[in-house]
TrEMBL record:
GO terms for biological process: proteolysis. Keywords: Carboxypeptidase, Disulfide bond, Hydrolase, Metal-binding, Metalloprotease, Protease, Signal, Zinc. Belongs to the peptidase M14 family. GO terms for cellular component: extracellular space. The active site is at E271. This is Peptidase M14 domain-containing protein. Its cofactor is Zn(2+). The keyword Zinc applies. It comes from the Eukaryota. One of its GO terms (molecular function) is metallocarboxypeptidase activity. Residues 6-304 form the Peptidase M14 domain.
């Protein structure tokens, strides 16, 4: 399919989501969370056989493209939609019947479009920092959540890629993620914040402490890593599964920690493969990468459901 042969721009993602909503009206609700800083609609799909009314079903919430340059992440979200709706295998019917899905393919559309047109390695949002005297633009969305805000793994200089923002949830883009988490909280069983690169399945907390259900969290993370490793290309690293602060680095204000602390039982950050190209993975890798990652998503959905 066209959309999985090259990186889709914001407008193509938008029309794909609109098309899914009109083609599968009984399964899909398209929600416009609101405008980005620059006014682009931030949309997500709700996928459910029971219109999200059956509280006995867990919700799987995934989002992608919180960091603009991490281009491989949005195709994974779109491919998940594709496998649930357009190309569902008979053996995957349980994923549709037993689980409700919230899929947000582009958290940070302003940053993504800027990385397409101006600066390929742009990471942050594109908000103007009015309350600090600076020319520098943007906030690291994954430092902007209200969890130990502005403490670790940040730089208070607004020109830094790790600028957490003037205050927690200063960015509308992180507000929308927060609002989804809080609106569906008792039913969101797993939150998967998709990033790149480096082949990690990370879990909480970034301050190196563990939630009480860490054994189950690790079990699901390890299953994800194993199935994705079983399909890995020779150029890719093996997945490293572990506590984000221990196996990567400590941070504050990150989406995964926020989701876990407000009550999501299973909260992960996936760092997808870079294949030696870091953020600039050639589109020829995309077809394999989305299929391999979908297997990780599918196993995490099935295992998380057992614990619901
Ligand atoms: O630093 C980040 O925000 C993530 N890595 S990235 O290269 N995609 O920017 C890792 C976040 C992992 N989670 C926490 N440290 N809480
Ligand atoms: Zn990232």
């Amino acid at each position: 399919r066209m959309i999985f042969s090259d990186y889709p721009r914001y407008a193509e993602v938008d029309s794909y989501m609109e098309r899914m909503a009109s083609t599968y009206p009984n399964l899909v609700t398209l929600v416009n969370a609101g405008p980005s800083f620059e006014g682009r609609a931030i949309k997500y799909l709700k996928i459910s056989t029971t219109n999200f009314t059956d509280a006995s079903k867990p919700i799987y919430f995934m989002d992608a493209m919180m960091h603009a340059r991490e281009w491989v992440t949005t195709p994974v979200a779109l491919y998940s939609i594709h496998r649930l709706l357009e190309n569902r295998r008979p053996e995957d019917q349980d994923l549709l019947d037993d689980i409700d899905w919230i899929i947000l393919p582009i958290v940070n559309p302003d940053g993504y479009e800027f990385s397409q047109t101006d600066n390929r390695l742009w990471r942050k949002t594109r908000s103007v920092n009015l309350n600090v005297s600076t020319e520098c633009i943007g906030v690291d969305a994954n430092r902007n959540f209200d969890i130990e805000f502005n403490t670790t793994g940040v730089f208070t200089n607004p020109c830094s890629n790790l600028f957490p923002g003037p205050y927690a949830f200063s960015e509308v883009e992180t507000q929308y993620v927060r609002d989804i988490l809080l609106e569906y909280l008792p039913r969101i069983q797993l939150y998967n914040d998709i990033h790149s690169h480096g082949n990690y399945v990370l879990f909480c907390y970034a301050n190196k402490t563990l939630p009480p259900n860490a054994a189950h969290i690790h079990h699901i993370g390890a299953a994800m890593g194993a199935i994705m490793d079983s399909m890995k290309l020779p150029q890719a690293r093996f997945y490293l599964v572990g506590n984000s602060g221990l196996v990567l680095y400590p941070t504050s204000g990150s989406a995964d920690d926020y989701a876990q602390v407000v009550g999501v039982p299973f909260s992960y950050t996936m760092e997808l493969p870079g294949y030696g190209y870091e953020f600039m993975v050639p589109p020829s890798y995309m077809d394999h990468m989305v299929k391999e990652t979908w297997e990780g998503i599918a196993v995490s959905a099935r295992l998380a459901r057992i614990h619901y």
